[in-house]
Design a protein that fits this description.
Number of strands: 56
Domain Macro: 582-770, 788-967
Strand content: 15-25%
Oligomer: single chain
Largest sheet: 8 strands, mixed
Protein name: Macro domain-containing protein
Mean pLDDT: 80
Distance between the termini: 153 Å
Structural class: alpha+beta
Strand order of the largest sheet: 40-41-39-42-43-38-37-44
Shape: elongated
InterPro entries: Macro_dom, Macro_dom-like, Mono-ARTD/PARP, Nucleotide-bd_a/b_plait_sf, PARP14_RPM_1
Region (Disordered): 83-102, 970-990
Subcellular location: Nucleus
Helix content: 25-40%
Length: 1228
């Protein structure tokens, strides 16, 4: 080894490992060899060996002795050491190594006895010892020579000189000599002292050097040589006189328990003993006897120490180990108690003391002052980012508390797999733990947001919870309440933790006192009244009686009112009209689910199950997953990870996860998908298998509803939209073909409306599902509804307002409205209308001039309508509202009964759809606030999903009290504009009569006391009765009603909720009962019908009179002149031709008065028009022409072959015998 650098060499024969070890130990002992720390013995070459010393001084001391005698099992060996190998040394080889042996001689004998160098010195320096040795050897005829160089005694003897032949042979002589030197070794001894103190005493005390004892000093040690007894005696005296040191394995803290008493004992009985206190040992130093006695006393005291183990929690033990609790408490207990107490932290807290009472008091103090608190992390504080804020706040408070010393520690205990933290652990001094606990409590109460679900005892509270909260006087400044009907009526209370708890408690207390009752009003129109003009009265009753009043469905209605409608998509095939509750055609759809196409985000849907696509077992692998995480927070991520870690998922498998309360569902089904790999690829099979599993799981688990998105057409899975729709609808269809759908009653298909291909997906979904309603004459689904179904409302004057999602160019209304800026005709609506109407309309539009806020009327072109109204909204909502009024006015002027209006300025103009909807609907409300003469249907046709939804939202708010139809009803046949309605002699009044059983209105009352509810019911009943009246109409007042009037009255009766009965069936009188305003409106309508009847009679007379005086004629291309009917004749005469005319063959023509031409709306062919004005005594034939202004005479040549010529000729021949006329003359 590198540290053993100082080598010595020696020779020996065949040393074994054991012998090498003994020789090494010899050289390690300084007093025997002079050596010290050395390495292993190594064989170099031949019989040469090497040993290396660590210190140079040790090497030098070994060299001082030329020979070293060592006892080995095979005998004694004498070694000669040198710095260099024996082959390189200048010393003779004979002196390198030798064994002790007798050397017999024929004349003399010689023996060499190796002796200790210091014993040789003693035999030399002590005359007495030398004399004794010489004498003993002389007796056997020998002499001795002390050889200091070889460290041996050389004995020589002469056989011949031996007295009396003392020994006859060498062996006997050797035995005697050996006996002499054995006696020498037994008589004398060498004591080597290496202890510095002992060495010092032996060197400095001259009394130790006597005639019998010699002291030899060497570097670092002293050798005492003399007779054995004398040396032992003197050494014993030295040892007794020198200080003794004894180490006891007693720790410093344990020693402190007995230090006071032991120190007192030592001071009294062993004053010369010193006590040295170290960490793990106690050292006693002094006279040997005193040290031994003191050690015995200390051990006796330590045996009296009592111990007590205090079991504390691991966290508290860890705090004790890492803080200065132990020295602090030891010092404090030492001041306060008679006996000190030692504390040692291991697995338990070990208390040690001489007093049991002190141990008990120490335990009480520790348990009193130290504490551990495990506090649950509430709500959002259990997860980032709130958890990070909690850590920051607590660590800041901890650092402040630990500014002077370590007093408290904070740790966060993880919850189950996949969660962040379930508990916050505080450990330390109780006072500081309490402070941090208050910090955490304050943050969780005031800052951390949480949410709790509270079950509602009455489903009616879902729609009026905010009003109920106001009723009980509860403030919810920082708390939000969200109601849900899944899986049971409940409210989600969200906000700061302590406010959530307070809110929950307040709601529970109020719900216990809640009183619910119903009031049934026997009479018509009660609900309508309290929704409209009676709303203020109802609100006064609510505020005065401290109750809530809610309308319920009338008792006779089997289904609640649902704001849905139906429509036929433009690109879809025609389908049967059906509503939410309507059965599909064919056999009854027993135990079959309903299909609903919903527009919106999947995460906002209400239902039992939401189906979510995923890729590679990751929640956020799709946009839907990311939106779910955004809405539900980390709670959904924990639940997802927890479930995903417990199962193996393969493509097509479904992972079921319980939904957090913030979502409107109870379960989430995650379908493991594959990216699109072609129609025949595996991805379609995987997706189909996953969708089927979702539907089967719903049936197996008794779930009622499930919501599917269009899976696959996003940027992750990359399905073509048509293929994604095909996979979904095929699986829904196959599910519908099963014998029973179990409890599954509703399947939602959710389409997000703001995607580029949303409209395309909607049409594809609707087309597939509508064609799958029946299979083999059997209904496989109850119904199919959509958020884009037509929404029909009866507004003022009985006008039907309908919102339609579709193509305005397919509308068959009397008038169609086109939105344009009159310069650019390429926006979507304008371009579509002009393309469908043809170039004639586009030319009229370009040539037309219109001022701001007015309407340009043109012919319909090829559109199936009577006219087109062109308007410009100019991105001005007030202007749009005025334009709607102008549109209605023009409809009235042209006697149009229906009009289709687009979303003016919501397309290329870019105006917000909600603003446009508000403006158009306000215009409709103003225009219909008074009774209209002819307009009965206003259709708002919208081609974009978001625009339709905006209009629907605004309409439901603006016309909340209107009658909303769920099923689209085709309009009843009407007379053409300008034509006289058929007489009403056979008009059936029985259809106006209503059933008394259907005239009951139900109101729900909610209050906090029975008295308040009873008083409110009484007051509401009195308010209603005060608003009712009855009017009887006589037969003659009803005589002028047409069938159209009857239909209008039916709608009015339905709208106003009136009760109509015949009082005297034989006389035809009607009694109308209901709200005063409704009864008055009926009276106004009947009076208006009388006036209309008079106007119609006047119009008939005007048409008849004009028909006798003026004849408007039409001549189709290549045809004869034909006289137009009276209505067309009257319209042409008065220039009311914007809506076109109808000839005797019921063909519709568009008229250009400036060129006296008409255009066939179906074929586009043109025809000539002319006006004939008859004389009082002569009616012109149709084929005659008018004379120009100022003409007094006109001659028209006649061809002999013409029919007119032949007719005139025949007339002349009857009176004269000769033909004289060759031309026809005309004069005024």
């Amino acid at each position: 080894m590198d540290e053993y650098k100082h080598a010595l060499f020696f020779e020996a024969k065949d040393l074994k490992d054991k012998e090498k070890g003994k020789i090494r130990r010899y050289f390690q002992i300084r007093r025997e060899s002079g050596g010290g720390d050395c390495g292993m013995i190594e064989e170099t070459e031949g019989d040469t060996y090497k040993i290396c010393f660590k210190e140079k001084e040790d090497q030098e001391r070994v060299l001082l002795r030329k020979f070293h005698t060592i006892s080995l099992p095979r005998g004694k060996v004498r070694l000669t050491v040198s710095r260099a190998m024996p082959s390189q040394s200048d010393e003779p080889s004979s002196s390198s190594s030798s064994q002790t042996f007798p050397k017999p001689n024929t004349k003399c004998l010689e023996m060499i006895f190796p002796l200790n160098l210091f014993l040789l010195c003693f035999l030399r320096d002590n005359p007495k010892a030398n004399k004794v040795l010489q004498k003993r050897l002389f007796c056997i005829g020998c002499t001795v020579e002390l050889d200091f160089e070889t460290e041996a005694a050389v004995v020589r003897g002469d056989i011949e000189k031996a007295p009396g032949g003392a020994f006859g042979v060498a062996e006997k002589w050797e035995l005697q000599v050996d006996r002499v030197f054995t006696g020498v070794n037994e008589t004398y001894c060498c004591y080597t002292a290496v202890e510095p103190k002992e060495v010092k005493i032996l060197q400095q005390d001259p009394s130790f050097v006597t005639d019998d004892i010699k002291v030899y000093s060497e570097s670092g040690y002293v050798v005492v040589v003399g007779e054995v007894e004398a040396v032992n005696e003197r050494i014993s005296m030295v040892k007794k006189s020198m200080p003794t040191r004894k180490e006891l394995p007693i720790g410093e803290r344990q020693f402190k328990l007995v230090q006071e008493e032991f120190s007192r004992e030592v001071c009294v009985y062993y004053p010369e003993v010193k006590i040295l206190i170290e960490r793990n040992t106690i050292t006693l130093e002094g006279p040997n006897m005193d040290v031994q006695s003191g050690a015995t006393k200390l051990e006796e005291l330590m045996k009296k120490v009592k111990e007590k183990r205090v079991k504390l929690c691991p966290a508290l033990m860890s705090f004790i180990k890492s803080s200065d609790v132990i020295p602090k408490y030891e010092a404090r207990l030492q001041r306060s108690l008679r006996n000190p107490v030692s504390l040692e932290a291991g697995s338990d807290l070990l208390l040690s003391s001489l007093s049991s009472d002190a141990l008990d008091e120490a335990e009480v103090a520790v348990r009193r002052d130290l504490a551990e608190e495990n506090l649950p992390a509430q709500g959002a504080a259990a997860a980032p980012p709130d958890l990070d804020t909690v850590k920051e706040i607590l660590n800041k408070a901890k650092n402040e508390a630990n500014s002077g010393e370590f007093r408290v520690d904070v740790s966060f205990i993880p919850g189950p797999v996949g969660t962040a933290a379930a508990e916050v652990r505080l450990v330390g001094y109780k006072k500081d733990v309490k402070k941090l606990k208050e910090v955490l409590h304050e943050y969780q109460m005031n800052q951390v947001r949480t949410q709790e679900v509270l079950k509602l005892p009455h489903p009616e509270l879902l729609n009026c919870l905010n009003e109920f909260v106001n009723l009980i006087g509860m403030k919810q400044i920082e708390v939000t309440l969200t109601t849900s009907s899944y899986p049971y009526p409940n409210v989600l209370v969200a906000g700061p933790y302590y406010l959530v708890q307070e809110t929950q408690q307040a709601l529970r207390s109020a719900l216990v006192c809640l009183v619910v009752d119903t009031l049934v009003l026997d009479g018509p129109g009660a609900q309508r009244y309290f929704k409209a003009e009676g709303r203020v009265a109802k609100e006064l009753v609510e505020s005065s009686c401290q109750v809530l009043i809610r309308e319920q469905q009338s008792l006779q209605s089997p289904w609640p009112l649902v704001l849905h409608g139906t429509r036929s998509p433009v690109s879809a095939a025609p389908r049967p009209v059906h509503g939410l509750r309507s059965m599909a055609a064919g056999s009854l759809a027993v135990n079959k689910p309903s299909l609903e196409i919903k527009l919106g985000s999947l995460e906002d849907q209400q239902g039992n199950v939401l189906v979510v696509p995923m890729l590679n077992r990751k929640l956020t692998s799709t946009k839907i997953g990311k939106r779910l995480l955004t809405k539900a927070g980390n709670e959904i991520q924990w639940k997802f990870d927890l479930m995903a870690a417990t199962v193996a998922l393969y493509p097509g498998d479904v992972l079921q996860v319980d939904a957090p309360p913030s979502l409107g569902c109870s379960k989430l089904f995650f379908v493991e998908c594959l990216p699109w790999d072609g129609v025949s690829g595996r991805s379609v099979q995987v997706l189909s298998a996953g969708l089927k599993k979702c539907l089967d799981l719903c049936v197996q688990q008794g779930l009622c509803s499930v919501a599917f998105p269009i899976i696959g057409h996003g940027i992750v899975l990359k399905y073509p939209p048509k293929e994604a729709v095909q996979v979904l609808t095929d699986n829904i269809q196959q599910f519908g073909l099963t014998a029973s759908a179990g409890s599954l009653s509703t399947i939602h298909i959710v389409i997000k409306p703001d995607y580029p291909d949303s409209e395309k997906c909607y049409y594809e979904v609707y087309r597939h599902l509508s064609s799958s309603m029946n299979q083999g004459g059997h209904a496989i689904f109850k119904s199919l509804t959509s958020d884009l179904d037509d929404l029909t409302m009866t507004v003022g004057g009985g006008v039907k307002l309908k919102l339609v999602f579709g193509d305005i160019t397919k509308e068959t209304t009397d008038a169609v409205v086109n939105t344009t800026d009159f310069t650019n005709f390429q926006n979507s609506v304008c371009r579509a209308i002009l393309t469908a109407a043809g170039p004639t309309v586009e030319a009229e539009l370009k040539a037309g001039k219109v001022s701001r806020g007015n309407v340009l009327v043109s012919g319909p072109g090829l559109l199936p309508s009577l006219a087109i109204f062109h308007v410009s909204g100019e991105k001005d909502v007030k202007l749009i509202e005025q334009l709607v009024l102008r549109i209605v006015e023009n409809c009235q002027a042209f006697w149009f009964r229906s009009v289709a209006i687009p979303a003016i300025s919501a397309g290329a103009a870019g105006l917000d759809p909600h603003l446009v909807a508000g403006a158009i609907l306000r215009g409709v409300r103003k225009a219909t606030s008074s009774t209209l003469a002819c307009l009965t249907d206003i259709r708002i046709v919208l081609s974009k999903m978001k625009v339709f939804l905006a209009f629907k939202e605004e309409a439901l708010q603006m016309f909340s009290s209107a009658v909303i139809d769920r099923v689209s009803v085709p309009p009843s046949p009407r007379a053409q504009p300008g034509q006289q309605a058929p007489p009403s002699e056979s008009a059936d009044l029985s259809g106006l009569c209503t059933r008394s059983a259907g005239q009951q209105s139900v109101f729900l009352f909610l209050g906090l006391s029975r008295v308040d509810v009873h008083d409110a019911m009484t007051k509401l009943k009195d308010v209603y009765h005060a608003q009712c009246s009855t009017k009887t109409f006589k037969e003659e007042e009803l005589a002028g009603l047409t069938q159209d009037n009857i239909e209008d009255l039916k709608q009015l009766v339905e709208l106003e909720g009136l009760y109509v009965q015949r009082e005297q069936p034989d006389r035809g009188t009607l009694a109308v009962s209901g709200l005063k305003d409704g009864v008055n409106t009926v009276m106004q309508m009947i009076n208006a019908s009388l006036q209309d009847s008079l106007r119609r009679e006047v119009r008939v007379r005007e048409e008849e009179d004009l028909f006798n005086r003026v004849a408007w004629c039409i001549q189709p291309h290549g045809g004869n002149w034909e006289r137009l009917p009276k209505t067309a004749n009257h319209n042409l005469e008065n220039n009311r031709v914007a809506g076109g005319i109808t000839d005797a063959q019921n063909t519709k023509w568009s008229v250009d008065p400036r060129r006296t031409e008409a255009t066939n709306r179906s074929t586009g062919q043109t025809a000539k028009l002319k006006r004939l004005e008859h004389l009082s005594d002569f009616t012109f034939p149709l084929y005659w022409d008018n004379m120009a202004a100022g003409e007094a005479f006109k001659k028209i040549p006649l061809q002999p072959s013409s029919a007119e010529y032949q007719t005139v000729k025949e007339g002349f021949l009857r009176t004269v015998q000769k033909t004289v006329m060759k031309h026809r003359t005309a004069h005024p």
